Amino acid sequence: MAKPTYTDADLRIGVTVDVKREGQTVVHTHRVIFARPLTRAEQHLFADVLVGFYYTVHFSQQFGNGLVAEPVVEFLSTHEARYTLKQRTLSGPWKDLLFAVLANFSYEVAPIQWHDESRAFDPAVGPRRTADDTMTRAT
Amino acid sequence: MILYHGTDIDSALDILNHGLDAAKLTALQLDRPTQLGRGWYAAYEAEVAWFFASLAPGNVGRGYTVIEIDIPEDILNQLIIAQQAMRGAIMNVPFGAQQYWFDLRAFEVLNAHATFRPYAGQEPSHG
Q1: Do B45 and A128 touch (CB under 8 A)?
Q2: What global pTM score does this model have?
C-alpha cells in the first residue's frame, strides 16, 4: 500500500496559543482553565508560582535562560487565566520545569482542567498509563 | 507501542511525509539547549505531548499538533539496549509523565520500522 501524503487537513491543529515575534523575542500566551473557581488568594498564588518559575530559570542557570521578563498573568474569570512568557528561544529544559510547576499546582492547589489543548494536569482524567504497563524496560 | 510527539505544523508534516531527518534536527537544535541532549523527543501520553506542542519552537502562528509514532516493541528495546533511545520521567511531577529521547543515530531505524501518522485522538471539548 502506498504511503499517504499528509496535509494540514489531516491534522488536529492547536490554535489556543497566541504567538508573536517581537524582534529577537517570542511572546507566547497560554490559556489555563481550572476545574473550579479560584479564590483571590489562589489566583495570587498561581501568579506568584509562575513568577517564581521565571526567577528559578534565570538564577539557577540549569534550565536554559531564554526568558527575558517576568510572566504576565491575567485572570479572565475566577476559573480561567492567561499567562504570557517572553523569551529568546522556545527550546530548552525550562519546559520540563514549567510542566512540573503546573502539575504540582494542579494537584496541590486547584485542578487545571485544560492547559491550551492539553489535559495533562487534570487529576480527574484518571489513572495514567505508565511505561511499566508495557513490556518495555529501559536498561 | 504508540508514542506521541508535539510540534509545529510544518515540522509535523515534514516528519509524516518524509520521516525523521538528522540534518534538519541538528540545524534546528544547534546552539539551543535541550532537555536530554540533541535528539528527538516523544511522550508516552498524548496529553503530555499536547503540552509540549503548545511550546513548539517552530510555531510561527500556523498552530501546532501532535503526531503518533507506532514503534514495534522489539525495535524500541533494541534502540534502548544500543543506547540510541532512553526512557525518562519528567522530574518532580505527581504522576508518571514519561518521555522518550531518540538519538540521531536511531533515525534510520525509526524511519524503516516505525509508522508516523496524525494524532487520532478525540477533539478537545473546551470552549
Answers
A1: yes
A2: 0.90
